[in-house]
UniProtKB/TrEMBL annotation:
Keyword Cytoplasm: no
Lineage top rank: taxon: Bacteria
Record-linked Pfam families: ABC_tran (PF00005)
Lineage: Bacteria, Bacillati, Actinomycetota, Actinomycetes, Micrococcales
Keywords: ATP-binding, Nucleotide-binding, Transport
Recorded GO MF terms: ATP binding
Protein name: ABC transporter ATP-binding protein
Keyword Transferase: no
Location of the ABC transporter domain: 19-250
Length: 264
């Protein structure tokens, strides 16, 4: 795939792009190169998965996109639908919830911090949005529970709801379901598909689960390691929302198999 032309301000030239990583390379100190010329674009409303072996630089790439890490060379440019600098949210593999806050307060936490940023016009509007997110993520019944009173799967729902509460232009998910058991994971994949659909989120999902990548995304960047680079971009040409039937379809299995072969 080709990287988009960047204009002089460094904003993606094409307004339909939420994000463009252009030949991003990363090397820490004198260590081996971690990423080499990784290019990736994400359109508004598009959901792109990144799969690749452990250590190929997936987390590093997300951190560069988020601005937590500086690339050695190359550029990442982002834009919201309105053309302003976009808001990003990051969901980590482990739920990083505040143990002394209830589920509801954990979801509201990110928004409370940014209350001055005009995400919500009033406390009431914010509280309504939090209530909507609790409903959307199946957490309404658990709103007054504390994190240690709910399961790992429920904790990850809180994490996703919290990330969505800031109304991100781009949602970055770093193996959000990896720590969960297989059944919980499958169930959550279906819910995540529905949530993405309802919120219309633009996002990037890092996962080492090829099946999960196929199930949830519009396109998949398949990475290779040492140094981390993009091996292929695979289109997942199936309409969203994805159904539980799609999760076990032969079409999905075929795509999964093709990507598996690339990785092995
Ligand atoms: N801050 C850092 N300093 C030095 N090396 C790092 C740093 N962050 C990541 N790495 C190295 O970069 C490589 C890729 O790591 P990572 O991005 O976490 O891979 P992945 O998420 O694909 O498993 C690993 O070898 C890791 O040790
Ligand atoms: Mg990682």
């Amino acid at each position: 795939m080709t990287s988009p032309m960047l204009d002089r301000q460094g904003a993606p030239a094409a307004p339909h792009l939420a994000l463009a990583a252009d030949r991003v390379s990363e090397q820490f100190g004198a260590g081996a190169p971690v990423l080499e010329n990784v290019s990736l674009t994400v359109e508004h409303g598009e959901f792109v998965a990144i799969v690749g072996p452990s250590g190929c630089g997936k987390t590093t790439l997300l951190r560069i996109i988020q601005g937590l890490e500086a690339a050695t060379s190359g550029a990442v440019t982002t834009r919201s639908r309105t053309g302003e600098a976009p808001r990003m949210s990051y969901v980590f593999q482990r739920a990083s919830l505040l143990p002394w806050y209830t589920v509801r307060d954990n979801v509201a936490f990110g928004v409370t911090l940014r209350a001055g940023n005009g995400i919500y016009g009033s406390k009431r509007e914010r509280d309504n949005a939090v209530a909507d997110l609790l409903a959307l993520t199946g957490l309404t019944k658990y709103a007054d529970f504390y994190p240690d009173q709910i399961s790992g799967g429920m904790q990850q729902r809180v994490n996703v709801a919290r990330a969505l509460a800031v109304r991100p232009d781009v949602l970055l998910l770093d193996e959000p379901l990896s720590a969960l058991d297989a059944l919980t994971r499958e169930r959550l994949q279906i819910d995540v598909a529905r949530i993405l659909e309802q919120v219309g989120t633009t996002g990037i999902l890092v996962t080492h689960d090829i099946r999960e990548a196929v199930f949830l995304s519009d396109r998949i960047a398949v990475m290779a390691a040492h140094p981390g680079r993009t091996r292929a971009i695979v289109d997942v040409d199936f309409p969203r929302p994805r159904t539980p039937e799609f999760q076990h379809s032969t079409e999905l299995a075929q795509l999964e198999r093709g990507i598996w072969e690339m990785l092995h």
